Amino acid sequence: MPKILKPARMEKCTGCGLCELLASRLTKGKLSYSGSFLQIRKASSGQPYFKAIIDYGQKTDYPEVRDICPENCYDIEEG
User: Fold this and answer.
1) Residue-number span of the structural domain to which 8 is assigned
2) Which residues contact 42 (CB under 8 A, 6 or more apart)?
3) Rounded distance, CA 6 to CA 53, Å?
4) 3-state secondary structure the chain
5) Number of domains the chain contains
6) pTM, whole model, 2 decimals?
7) Mean pLDDT across the stretch 3-23?
8) pLDDT per position as a tens digit, 40-53
9) Which pairing describes strands 38-42 and 50-54: parallel, antiparallel, or unpaired?
10) CA dist., res. 52 & res. 39, Å (int)
């Protein structure tokens, strides 16, 4: 079974965007929020949390993305 990036602790997310930029750089070779397989959005209006929207149609098991998060929000698990 393939491994995938899982947003395990998004209640800790500060919305810094480091994971988005690194995901884009790893897959597209450039820094871009719009070109990333990982998007960080506000959970909903009035909520203090963020959510991760991940495109699982491509490889997502990059340990670099997991490791760059200053709040340790991600795990890599069996899909």
Assistant:
1) 3-78
2) 15, 49, 50, 51
3) 10
4) CCEEEEECCHHHCCCCCHHHHHHHHHHHCCCCCCCCCEEEEECCCCCCCEEEEECCCCCCCCHHHHHHCCCCCEEEEEC
5) 1
6) 0.89
7) 96
8) 999 887 777 999 99
9) antiparallel
10) 6
